[in-house]
Amino acid sequence: MTPVLRIFKEQIFHLPLILRLAIYEIKGKYQMHYLGVLWQLINPLIQVCVYWFVFGFGLRQAGEVGDTPFIVYLLLGLVPWFFISPTVIQGSNSVYSKVNLVSKMKFPVSVLPSITIFGNMFNFLIMLGLLTIVLGFYGINGGLFLLQLPYYLFCLFAFLFAFTLLSSTISTIIRDYQIMIQSLMRMLFFLTPIFWSMDMFSETIQTVIKLNPFAYIINGFRETFIGQAWFFDDWRYMLYFWSLTLLLLFIGSLLHENFKNKFVDYL
C-alpha cells in the first residue's frame, strides 16, 4: 500500500476518534474562561470590526470593490482566512506538541493534523453561517453558483491536510521551521487578495499572485457567494492548484512514513 493510500485509510478509519479529540481540544482550551467557546466567535468578530474600520473607512473611505460593498468583500476573504491561518500554524506544530499523546492512546500520528483541522472547522462553520446572514442583509445571492461551495470547501480541507501533513513533519525535525511558518502566514495575510482585488494589477502580477494557493480558495469563495464564475471557467488555474495539492500530499506522506517512528527522538 502506498504511503498516500495508507494515510488516507488512517483518516477514514479513525474519523470518530478525530472528531472526539477535536471537540475535547476545543473544550479544554476554553474551560477556564467565563465565556468558554464563545471566544472562538468573539475574537474573529473583533478583528473583522478592526479591519473594516481601518481598511474600509480609513483607507478606502467605505467604498465598494466593483459592485460589492467593502464589508461583504472583506468578510468573504476574512472568514476563510480565519480558518486557514490558525490551522496552518497549529497544524504545523500538531505532531511536535501531541506526539506524547499518541504513545499513550495508540493511534496513528497522521491524524494529528486532522484533529487540528476539525477543531478549527467548527468555528469556521459558525462564521460561514453568520456570513450568509450578512449577505442576505445586503441582498447578495450567489444563485446557482452556490452549488460549487462544496467543491471549494473540499479544496480548502484537502490543501490544509496536505500542507499540514508535510509541515508538521518538517516542524518536528527542524524547529526553526515553525517560526518560519508563523512569519510566512503573517506575510501572506497581506499578499493574499483579502483586502484588495487582483483586478487592480497587470496580468503579469496576477499570474504571480495566483501562485499562492490560498488566493485560489479565497477567490473561489468570493466567486461562489457573489455569483461571478464557475470553478471550471479557469481550468488551468484549477489544474495548478490540484497539482500543487497532490504534490504536497505525496511528499508529505513519504516524509511522514519515513519519520513517524522517530518523532519521539526529536522531542
TrEMBL record:
GO terms for molecular function: ABC-type transporter activity. Belongs to the ABC-2 integral membrane protein family. PROSITE patterns: ABC_TM2. Residues 35-259 form the ABC transmembrane type-2 domain. One of its GO terms (cellular component) is plasma membrane. This is Transport permease protein. It is a multi-pass membrane protein.
